[in-house]
Amino acid sequence: MRKVKVIFNDDGSDKYLFDGKEIKLENVSGTAEEVVAALSSGGFSTECIPLKSSQRGKIDEFINRVASDDAIVFNLCEGAFGKSSFEMHIAALLDLYGVKYTGSGPLTLGLSLDKGLTKDILHSRDIPTPGYCVMNEPPSRLKRGLKFPLIVKPLKEDASLGIDSGAVVNTMKDLKKRVEYIITKFIQPAIVEEYVEGREFNIAVIGNNGSLRALPPSEIEFIDFPEGIPKICCYEAKWVTQSPLYKKTVPSCPANVPESLKDELQAVALKAYGAMGCRDYARVDMRLGEDGNLKVLEVNPNPDISSDAGLARAASAVGLDYAGLIHNIVGSAATRYGVAGFTAKEAG
Questions:
Q1: Domain 128-194: which topology?
Q2: What percent of the chain has pLDDT over 90?
Q3: Which architecture, in CATH terms, is 3-103?
Q4: Angle, alpha carbons 233-30-5 (nearest 5°)
Q5: Alpha-carbon distances, residue 293 vs 1, 200, 201, 261, 288 (angstroms)
Q6: ∠50-56-60 over CA atoms, to 5°?
Q7: Closest residue by Cα to residue 190 from 173, 210, 176, 201
Q8: Of 94, 215, 326, 346, which cross-links 314 as Cys (Cβ 3.0–4.6 Å)?
Q9: 294-330, pLDDT tens digit by residue?
């Protein structure tokens, strides 16, 4: 029987202080349950294996259980032991043990987490991205070529951590203050990039080589945003369901765009996917500036794969239901490894 092991980092729920109250946010364990259910519905034998924070001194127990047979592993580890920077190390461990797994490899995961290196690669491949620089300390002057407004983010975080309404700055005073905040709060450099005012799009890409395809673009619509609040998909807008910003940040898929813009969005997404060495599935985030030019903001290998996330919405737009999407990802990985019996369901 075809077997798939689903692994994920079980670090407990993140907590967020909102409106004076501490709330718990969903973690990846719920996504793992959805993936297991989707695989089971397709006749796969499944096993769910969490990597708990308490296992840090017993990582051999985890990897021996994962590598005990020839199953395909669905890798949902977004990090390990509370650190997103360890995401690449889990993939490296799987490689060392000869485990066949879904998603991108350690090099791609590590490069994509570092926003500066990602932009270096995109720029070198002539893929449009906003002007940027990495700052290890508050600047005394603005780097040549940059101009306000700017957006300031932690260099090596994901899931919009460190991005809030104060991330967009318009003066040197505010820039210095924000860079200092990021360096102090997150113990890492800040990346400063030109803020692109305009429409925001996410483009999901699935497959490899001959099966590679970009799915219909999704647009993040900023509905009735409060005056003076920048239209960005900040942490609160992305994850805190109780927040008004969450309710005013509405995904629309497929995006209402002309065919020519759809083609351009998909072409740029495919180019960025290839440049970063992504495998099986990924998401490319872009903005269309008021000048009509597209700019790639980030490339997200192994993005959120839950049933209500953007990747699943994009798959649904081409007739691929959630179970079909999960089967497709497993099939793509199996084909890469030359393993028979895991045929991917085709999108419409």
A1: Dna Ligase; domain 1 (3.30.1490)
A2: 70
A3: 3-Layer(aba) Sandwich (3.40)
A4: 120
A5: 50, 12, 13, 10, 6
A6: 75
A7: 176
A8: 215
A9: 999 999 999 999 999 999 999 999 999 999 999 999 9
Whole-angstrom Cα distance, residue 318 to residue 324? Answer: 11
The CA distance from 150 to 193, in Å, is 6
Other C-beta atoms closer than 10 Å to the C-beta of 145 total 9
Q: Is 280 helix (H, G, I), strand (E, B) or coil?
A: coil
What are the sequence ranges of the domains in the chain? 3-103, 128-194, 198-337
Q: What is the DSSP letter of 323?
A: H
Considering the entire predicted model, what is its pTM? 0.91
Contact 336, 212 (CB under 8 A): no
Give me the sheet containing 168-169, strands edge to edge.
132-135, 190-194, 150-154, 168-169
Sorted by sequence, the CB contacts under 8 Å of residue 39 that are 6+ apart come out as: 4, 6, 46, 74, 323, 326, 327, 330
Contact 312, 325 (CB under 8 A): yes
Task: Write the DSSP assignment of 130-191 as a string of letters.
Answer: --EEEESS--SSPPTT--SSEEEEETT--TTTT-STTSEE-SHHHHHHHHHHHHHHHSS-EE
Pairing of strands 100-101, 132-135: unpaired
Q: Tell me whether strands 213-214 and 190-194 are parallel, antiparallel or unpaired.
A: unpaired
Please state which of the four CATH numbers 1.20.1300.10, 3.30.470.20, 3.20.20.100, 3.40.50.1980 is assigned to the domain occupying 198-337.
Answer: 3.30.470.20
Question: Which residues are bridge partners to 206 per DSSP?
Answer: 213, 281
Alpha helices in 243-297 (DSSP H): 244-247, 259-275
Among the listed residues 256, 197, 203, 255, the one whose alpha carbon sits nearest the alpha carbon of residue 231: 197
Token pair for 117:
């290196």
DSSP 18-81: ETTEEEEPP-HHHHHHHHHHHHHHTT-EEEEEEEEGGGGGGHHHHHHHHTSSS-EEEEE-S-BT
